[in-house]
Specification:
By secondary structure, this protein is an alpha+beta fold. The protein has three helices and seven strands; from the N terminus they run αββββββααβ. The two termini are 28 Å apart.
Length: 106
């Protein structure tokens, strides 16, 4: 099973928003490819945010972001897998929310 996980491993290197075109671009690297870009319309996606348990003053940080299209996950961002800091995940989440992407906190 571990071999299968390594084969299907995808790491997101960069997330870019193009608000004027209502698009999001994920730069991804897999085990068998260099870098490739996946482009999605913001109108077709929604975002699920998994937050950490509140620490101080009831504040929590996003630890995983799931971009979904028609209930199917198209991209998962985590700080452990992709190396994004909690602040970067928070910034991506806030940008998506600003661009009127439907957001659900899980």
């Amino acid at each position: 099973m571990k071999i299968l996980n390594e084969i299907s491993f995808k790491r997101v290197l960069e997330v870019r928003f193009k608000p004027e075109e209502r698009k999001i671009i994920f730069t991804i690297r897999t085990l068998f490819s260099d870098q490739l870009q996946k482009v999605y319309s913001l109108d077709d996606l929604r975002l699920e945010v998994v937050e950490s348990k509140p620490v101080i003053f009831g504040l929590s940080q996003p630890v995983a972001l799931y971009f979904l299209r028609n209930r199917k996950e198209v991209c998962e961002l985590t700080n452990s897998k992709d190396g994004f800091s909690n602040e970067q995940l928070q910034e991506i989440y806030k940008t998506a929310e600003t661009l009127s992407l439907p957001v659900k906190k899980v």
